[in-house]
Each structure stands twice: as C-alpha cells, then as structure tokens.
C-alpha cells in the first residue's frame, strides 16, 4: 500500500492514435468532394482544411485519451459506474464536441467564411460528433475487454489520511465501516483510512465471495473471520484474526446471521474453528 497510483490500463499506443487522426482527417475532407485525391491534394484550400482537421483530430483523440486516463485514476468504472459515465460523457464527448465547434467557427472566421451557410454543419459536423462518441465507446470497450481477460488484476481502493491519498488492495482490508457520512477502511496492519464509498457502492464493487456486510455500517473481509459466537435475539458476533477496537460493533443482524453461517460452512476453515 502506497501513495502512488496503482497500474492502470494504458489503452491505445500513440501511433494508433496518430493513424486514427490521419484517417479521420482524410475521411472528413475527401469523400464529400467530387474530384480525385490527386487533384484535391494540389489545391490550397484542401491542404488548409486537411491540416486543420488533422490538428483537431489529433487534439480530440489525445484529449479523450488523457481525460480517460485521468478519470481512471480518480473515478474508475468499477467503483462508481454511473458517476464515471456522467464525467466521461461530459469530458470525453460534450467538451470535445464544443471544442470542435469553436475551432471550426474560428477556422471559417479566418478564411472569411460563414459556417452556418456552408455544408460543414450538415455534412462534416455530424460525422465529427459520431466519431467522438465512437471514440469514447472504443475506450470503454477496451476497458471491458481488459477486465474480462485479465481477471487476476488486483483491485485497489482509494483512501486518504490528511491531505495524502493512498491506494491499497482489497486483500489488505480487515473491515470497512461507515459512520454517518464518513467511511473508513481498517486494514489488517492496523492502519485506518477515510474512504469515499457508500456501503451500497462497496457491495457492488467487492466480491460477495470475499466480503460480507454484517449490518448497516460494517462490511467484513471473510478471510479475516475465525469464527462467531451467538448473542441475544438470534444474532451472532464475529471473531476476527486481528484485534479490533472495543467500540467496533461486529454483531451480525438477525436477518443476515443465517446467510453468514451458510457462507462460513462452505469455507474450508469453518468447520475447524467454528465457535458454538
């Protein structure tokens, strides 16, 4: 566990992005013309349009690339899918479309043209919007394929202590706790960090084979459970491998007790260390 970011997906190499920029520039400028490419390439207006489109394609593709990397480090798809989808749409689609529109208007202004009277808004700009949307979908698809074929990749959670951010794997967690609006991760080494996850988000993020929510405010790592002891009202209290604060309530609610017992019975160590 450290202050550095864990290893993230690197996505498409720079030369693939450059090839994509060249293809988009060619496609936006050439098919709408009624002359051969060899004839067009000799014309100054085509050269200017091609270079401008290439530059904008380059900026947009790199913008989507680095905004995706930025969000991967601070708001992953796995942690908060809805919030990440919103931010990806705003940064990767809306912002890039607006950037292209402003750049196109500036270009037409420089060449003494009127963008609204041209065919650009009817022919090229819809293709620009579609290309930006498809580009973001490609990055999401790359992410999903990467996760699908690399299931052994470690899952990290982000915590904080003071002004510093820390990342730790789920294997380091002893239990997770929510106190009011503040969440905490208590690690097996005894360290405690503030986390920005709700219990419902953690339930979606973490595997049910590794973690179990025992009550409204606590979720426990199953590999840290050594047994349990019965308490009043058909509930039980968990026993963990590592010592916990006396103020920590490890009582399992009655509705969850039977479910937990069945889970522990399926684990190989349950029969050996179960406390009745």
Number of helices: 8
The main pleated sheet reads as: 7 strands, antiparallel
The proportion of residues forming helix, as a percent range, comes to 40-55%
Strand-pairing-aware structural class:
alpha+beta
Rg over C-alpha atoms, rounded to the nearest angstrom: 27 Å
N-to-C SSE series? Answer: HHHHHEEEEEHEEEEEHH
Average pLDDT works out at: 84
Placed side by side, the strands forming the largest sheet appear as 2-1-5-4-3-7-6
How many separate domains make up the residues? 2
Which segments are poorly predicted (pLDDT under 50) over 5 or more consecutive residues?
A: 1-5, 269-276
What does this entry show, briefly?
This protein has 276 residues and is α+β, with helices and mostly antiparallel strands. The protein is 49% helix and 18% strand. Helix 1 crosses helix 3, helix 3 (44-74) runs antiparallel to helix 4 and helix 3 runs parallel beside helix 5 (120-149).
Description:
By secondary structure, the protein is α+β, with helices and mostly antiparallel strands. It has two domains: 14-149, no CATH class; 156-273, LytTr DNA-binding domain (OB fold (Dihydrolipoamide Acetyltransferase, E2P)), CATH 2.40.50.1020. Helices cover 49% and strands 18% of the residues. The protein is built from eight helices and ten strands. It has helices at residues 14-29, 37-40, 44-74, 81-110, 120-149, 199-205, 254-266, 270-273; strands at residues 156-161, 164-169, 173-179, 182-187, 192-195, 211-213, 218-221, 225-230, 236-240, 251-252. The chain has a seven-stranded antiparallel β-sheet with strand order 2-1-5-4-3-7-6, with no helix packed on it. A three-stranded antiparallel β-sheet has the order 8-9-10. The longest helix is centred in the N-terminal third of the chain and has 31 residues, at 44-74. The chain starts with 13 loop residues before the first helix and ends with a helix.
């Amino acid at each position: 566990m450290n202050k550095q970011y864990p290893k993230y997906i690197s996505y498409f190499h720079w030369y693939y992005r450059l090839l994509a920029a060249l293809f988009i520039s060619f496609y936006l400028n050439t098919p709408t013309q009624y002359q051969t490419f060899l004839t067009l390439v000799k014309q100054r207006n085509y050269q200017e349009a091609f270079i401008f489109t290439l530059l904008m394609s380059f900026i947009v593709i790199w913008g989507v690339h680095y905004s995706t990397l930025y969000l991967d480090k601070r708001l992953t798809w796995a942690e908060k899918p809805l919030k990440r989808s919103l931010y990806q749409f705003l940064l990767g689609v809306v912002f890039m479309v607006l950037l292209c529109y402003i750049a196109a208007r500036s270009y037409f202004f420089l060449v003494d043209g009127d963008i609204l009277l041209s065919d650009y808004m009817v022919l090229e700009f819809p293709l620009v919007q579609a290309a930006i949307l498809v580009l973001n979908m490609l990055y999401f698809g790359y992410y999903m394929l990467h996760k699908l074929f690399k299931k052994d990749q470690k899952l990290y959670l982000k915590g904080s202590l003071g002004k510093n951010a820390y990342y730790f794997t789920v294997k380091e967690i002893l239990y997770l706790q929510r106190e009011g609006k503040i969440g905490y991760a208590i690690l097996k080494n005894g360290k405690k960090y503030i986390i920005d996850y709700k219990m419902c988000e953690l339930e979606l993020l973490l595997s049910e084979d590794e973690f179990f929510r025992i009550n409204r405010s606590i979720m426990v790592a199953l590999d840290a459970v050594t047994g349990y002891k019965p308490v009043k009202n058909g509930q039980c209290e968990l026993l963990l491998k590592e010592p916990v604060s006396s103020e920590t309530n490890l009582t399992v609610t009655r509705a969850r007790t039977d479910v937990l017992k069945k889970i522990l019975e399926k684990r190989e160590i349950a029969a050996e260390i179960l406390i009745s």
